[in-house]
Amino acid sequence: MFFERHEGGERAILVHLEGLDEQRQEDPQEFIELVRSAGAENAGFLTISRHQPTPRFLIGSGKVDELRALVKASEGELVIFNHTLTPSQERNLERELECRVIDRTGLILDIFAQRARTHEGKLQVELAQLDHLSTRLVRGWTHLERQKGGIGLRGPGETQLETDRRLLRVRIKQITKRLEKVRSQRDQARRARRRAEIPVVSLVGYTNAGKSTLFNTLTVSEVYAADQLFATLDPTLRRIDLADIGPVILADTVGFIRHLPHKLVEAFRATLEESSQADLLLHVIDAADEERESNVDQVHHVLGEIGALELPMLEVYNKIDLIDGFEPQIQRDEDGVAVRVWISAQQGRGLDLLAQAIAERLGDDIVQERIQLDYAEARLRAQFYAAGAVLGEQIGEDGRQQLEVRLQRSDFNRLLKREGWQPEQFLQQHTLQ
Asked: CB–CB of 361/312 below 8 Å?
């Protein structure tokens, strides 16, 4: 759509409706940011007060005339609505305005098409685009219609429109099959991580909240990060080491947005499953955004759609450098559990507190026991020392070693299984009262 023009973006007229009910209301500033992220040039912004949309144009016929005049005066090439248009409304507006018209869903799809870098991401975007396009095919190919008869028009009895629809269905089926294979591969990778008992921490949050900047800082990576919406589209996983916890997989995921098109949620389900299967969610929030509470609600809504809302969550309020006099801190609930951390990923402030809070939340399941080992279990004693798990040691009256060990349960279980023990059985026979 936009990326065909190399000298600059298309000149776009932006249309925003006010007065709609709260569920359908959109943020005009976010709309402008979306258009900027897509690479279009803002040639005009028209705000229309409308309590009840019209079936034909969404807006009234008088506003259509006003919009047509604005398009001609500004030499606009494209009109973008900050709302969802039906296929017939889109066609009617294009006929009246004599230029291309797209809605909010089409705009987001275009941004996703530009951002997709991996094969999987491109497949997911194409699937969402084809789903969107399938309802917008019109009888615009009547010169190729084969049902009329006559010279050059005799054929199998299938119109070009029907051919297009059939080809779309075939392509959608192919992509769906490939994405099912991707999902299967991701499931295998997740099962392998579970067998290794490596916890997964997934970054989620509203788009442009600073997830990729935080990810890069924590993992010393170079994932693409920019001050624009949907800078990250493809999921990225990296391994980090935390004190008391050991290795952890950190996952960076696509940002959420209010009224995220359902087709995109469906298409990106394989990607979003990285979040739904995580051991801990880091909900990154732009602390300086005036709409942050609304954005938090939107993230919770999408997490609910993918079945991840019940997972353990740590809120990370980012960008405190944009708030005067605010210092990094951990906030806890009445039980002393870390629930919120205030940081600046850009300046690297508060990252030690974040690591501490993550370790606390993941370390809820830490084993700390006094155990007694027989002489023949010297190898097991050496394994505990190698893992840095021994807090203290003394010799019992019977000459056996008594160790106080502290270790993440996943590492504790893995160590014992490697030595041929079932953890429950070992604790029953070796724990000192």
From this structure: yes
Please state, in angstroms and rounded to a whole number, the distance separating the CA atoms of residues 58 and 55. 6
Residues at the binding site are: 205-212, 230-234, 252-255, 318-321, 344-346
**In which residue ranges of the chain is CATH 3.30.70 found?**
366-430
User: pLDDT tens track of the chain, all 433 residues?
Assistant: 443 433 445 889 999 988 766 666 777 888 888 888 888 888 889 988 877 888 899 888 899 999 999 999 998 889 999 888 888 898 899 999 988 898 888 888 888 788 776 777 788 788 888 887 777 765 443 444 444 444 444 455 556 667 777 888 888 889 888 888 877 777 777 676 666 567 888 888 888 888 888 988 888 766 555 545 554 555 677 888 887 677 888 888 777 777 666 666 666 665 666 677 788 899 999 999 888 898 898 889 888 877 788 888 999 999 999 988 889 999 988 877 889 999 999 899 999 999 889 988 887 667 778 898 888 888 898 988 888 888 888 888 888 888 888 877 767 887 888 888 888 888 888 888 6
Residue ranges for the known binding site for Mg(2+) are 212, 232
Options 3.10.20, 3.40.50, 3.30.70, 3.10.150; CATH of 366-430:
3.30.70
Dump the DSSP string for 380-426: HHHHHHHTT-EEEEEE-TTS-EEEEEEEEHHHHHHHHHHTT--HHHH
Contact 377, 351 (CB under 8 A): no
> CA-CA distance, 214 to 237, in Å (whole number)?
13
pTM over 0.70? The answer is no
Cα–Cα nearest to 218, from 85, 401, 353: 353
Q: Which CATH superfamily is domain 11-102 in?
A: GTPase HflX, N-terminal domain (3.40.50.11060)
Under CATH, domain 199-362 is a member of which superfamily? Answer: P-loop containing nucleotide triphosphate hydrolases (3.40.50.300)
Q: State the binding site for GTP.
A: 205-212, 230-234, 252-255, 318-321, 344-346
CATH 3.40.50.300: which residues of the chain? 199-362
